[in-house]
Amino acid sequence: MCHHHDILRSADQEMQQEERKIDRRQFLTKTSMGLGALALGSLFGSEKLFAGGQSIPTVGSGGLEGLPHHIPKAKRIVYLFQSGGPSQIETFDYKPKLMDMFGKELPPSVRGEQRLTGMSAQQSSLPIAPSIYNFDQYGESRAWVSELMPHTAEMVDDLCFIKSMHTEQINHDPAITFFQTGHQLPGRPSIGSWISYGLGSSNENLPTFIVLNSKNAGGQPIYSRLWGNGFLPTQHQGVQFRSGKDPVLFLNNPDNYDGEDRAEMLQYLKQLNEMQHSAYGDPEILGRIAQYEMSYRMQTSVPEITDMSDEPDQVFDMYGKDSRDSGTYAANCLMARRLLEKGVKFVQLYHRGWDQHNYLPGGIRNQCKNTDQATAALLKDLKQRGMLEDTLVIWGGEFGRTVYSQGKLTPQNYGRDHHPRCFTMWMAGAGVKPGYTHGATDDFSYNVTENPVHVHDFHATLMHLMGINHEKLIYKHQGRRFRLTDVEGHVVKDILV
């Protein structure tokens, strides 16, 4: 230990020598700001010097100056992303007229000029495939829900269905990327990163934006760039919590290291980084300092939040038996509630496996069995704790499925291809109308007939509920001003209370 402190003292002496080496001329030469920017900083605050004139909140701060733009209805968001494209025809978009159209060709007038994917474009026939599952109406709202989702059906009076969602993206990767970042190409900041950047944190010991990915789920891959910070400062990227003994990689101390001098080491590291920042003015250095400090605090907060031994049996029973198995969808839903309780602003769940091109009836039954109870339990849990009124819950995938069968159609078996023209999502909680259905589709669930809602509109509404004007949360990068909704998007006012 004495040798270790000798090293730290030596490092301290070296830092002092380096500080003396940076004289006035070298400082002004190396810094990218200059005297004009320094004078401007004295007027507007030093936090405005970087990132194109925008403030850079450190983790644990209150976010950008002037935000929220208006009083928010939601303090936090949990987004239950169902990756693969759940079929709206088997879940929430009831189409009884299809029962008399089994095997008939999809009318050209319905399809119009809409393109098909390469997986069904070469089919000689596009036969209509009615759902084999029964629907019924539930609650005072009399919403139609499939027999596959009995637990969600109990909660319909808390749900706001949007049956007129649509997107231009017809394949998984660009469609998922579009939903998570507002652009079909990789590289833009994710929703959670924008919220972290704009609003900051409500808990200095946990990240603002946390990601939970269901383990052992097949289907399309999920990439870390979907919760990336893009061109925003790196402390705003999502932090993935994994199942197992190390929820966050590289957080635990190395073997044979007790960590007693961790705080001292970080203090010296912070001094080195501050020297670098004073010399070069790179705002990313501030982000690195914030990340190191957050990681240090997370060494205590993460084990505490991931230890579910304090949850009573009735809570596990409510979420289902899988909730005791870390990393399952059910366990992640329960973990999401715990994170929201601790002030995490944005929790993103990813659950894969909804991509049923073949054998859809059996595949979607299994998916609903694995997710329905836990989804409803999360709603019930938030509601009974008084949290649903200021928590926005979102459920949905990247697109829907076709009314026609991909591959061979039989009375008990069929597949469905991707369908971006119309699909169903729902929201619940803070600021949205409970027991309400917005939008409608034609008898084939193929085209939107009322109140279309685009992905940009969805993002604009989500931001609005968090107190953000989506047209004003802007970040200048490479000479252009960027925002989550790009140059489009309208708040869907009809779904708001």
Automatic annotation (TrEMBL):
Residues 1-20 are annotated as: Disordered. SUPFAM superfamilies: Alkaline phosphatase-like. It comes from the Bacteria. This is Sulfatase.
